[in-house]
Amino acid sequence: VNIITKKTGDEWHGSWNTYMNAPEHKDEGSTKRTNFSLSGPLGGDFSFRLFGNLDKTQADAWDINQGHQSERTGIYADTLPAGREGVQNKNIDGLVRWEFAPMQSLEFEAGYSRQGNLYAGDTQNTNSNDLVKENYGKETNRLYRNTYSVTWNGAWDNGVTTSNWAQYERTRNSRKGEGLAGGTEGIFNSNQFTDIDLADVMLHSEVSIPFDYLVNQNLTLGSEWNQQRMKDNASNTQALSGGTIPGYDSTGRSPYSQAEIFSLFAENNMELTDT
After folding, report:
1. Which SUPFAM superfamilies is this protein grouped with (predicted)?
2. What is the pLDDT along the chain (275 residues), one digit of tens a residue?
3. For the chain, which terminal residue's Cβ has fewer other Cβ atoms within 10 angstroms, N or C?
């Protein structure tokens, strides 16, 4: 059962797992991982769930593909295709559940995660420069995510159920500067980190109504609203060349963008046979 969706119970449960992988060939990155989960009652109508994870995979050796490179000349004559990039990740998530009435519950959840890479030298067309070589094995991009949500789940004796939630998620993509066009595309041009921030708000509500008309049926009606706002200080800094685009400045464009989606949905499930 997925621990993210598994309901908390009236008894204490916990687990701790660890994993290690050491490849036969030392040029390949090794992996270490550990995670835990803990859930149980808090007294009265309250219970909780907590789980976390910590893992790290080393980057492959910078010369793992020596002898398999394409022939290149000039300043790129000694460049090699990169191996697998390493990754280090940690996350923790907690939930408190309040069963405030029979078949009615509120869930309050918060989570945090951070994921960073361990650079293995990958670039477009194996192009290279001093920053590419300098950053091998280092963290060149990192992703932070914070989530907060509240959920109401309800059911009644007539079989009607409802699920409603509000969620806020903030993601920060922080990465070293890279070229955005031409032969320098994808190559580091700075050791300074630049952030891309995304804020996401979602409101969701649905109700399921069972009824018997010719056959047993279950009708689900709902709506959802989603707003996304982004501030991108990295991807749209490239000056336009080769002509202008009506309505857009060639330089100094706004880093802000946003989108909103509103939807209504309906679904009906019919039981045509007994199995």
Report:
1. Porins
2. 444 455 666 789 999 999 999 998 888 899 999 999 999 999 889 999 999 999 999 999 988 888 877 777 677 777 888 889 999 999 999 999 999 999 999 999 999 999 999 999 888 888 888 898 899 999 999 999 999 999 999 999 999 999 999 999 999 999 999 888 877 788 888 899 999 999 999 999 999 999 999 899 999 999 999 999 999 988 887 777 766 777 777 777 889 999 999 999 999 999 988 77
3. C
Asked if residue 19 is part of any domain, the answer here is yes
Q: Which residues pair with 231 in a beta bridge?
A: 197, 256
* Cβ–Cβ < 8 Å for 260, 225: yes
Instruction: Identify the CA nearest to 209 among candidates 160, 162, 163, 269.
Output: 160
Give a yes or no: residue 66 inside a domain.
yes
Do 194 and 159 form a contact (C-beta atoms < 8 A)? no
Instruction: Sort residue 123 into left (φ over 0), alpha (ψ -120 to 50) or beta.
Output: beta
Please state, as a whole number, how many other Cβ atoms lie within 10 Å of the Cβ of residue 264.
Answer: 8
For the record, the structure tokens of 254 come out as 């706004």
- Report the domain count for the chain: 1
- The structure's pTM equals 0.84
